[in-house]
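(Protein data)
===
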Amino acid sequence: MNATGPRTPATDRTALRGYLRELGIDVWVRRDRRHPEGSDGAGHAKEEQAPVDRTEPTPVFDIRGFRTGRVLTLFDASLRPHRRFFLDVAMAMNGWRSDRREDVRFDWPQPLSAGGGEEAAGRAFRAFVAAQSGDGGRILAVGQTVAGLLGEEPPGPVLAVDQVVHGADRRELWRRVRNLA
């Protein structure tokens, strides 16, 4: 028993809502349309139902890559085994000027993020890419997830590759590398 009466789940929820309001957090409570006061007609407080979460599920992924010279290369997990091939592509995009490589990684959801759906992940990813690629940097996006997160307006020139290419398709890839440079 506390100073205002017995402690019940209903009083705990009321106190919690007041605390959250004081913090500036909106609190939504489902109301019964037949009894707008929230009672069951007999003077007893009704059990409140938790609000339904209609946000889209939070995507979970980690994107790894490397930066060499002015080129930032980012991989879908399924294409990481072909990293050596894409290192050659990145080196060609950089004009074979740098052999120093720095690994980078982007994880979602991030520890301090509020979650969110794919749109929030895309915004965070584009900000990460802009910070990593710098001014005048080029981006080698390897895989559909990376290309999808970059969106319609990536933070720099992008060469998107969906898969490892072989034979005649490699000539087309090298042509695209030359045109981007």
Q: What stands out?
A: The two ends are 74 Å apart (CA to CA). Strands lie at 61-68, 71-75, 102-108, 138-142, 158-161.
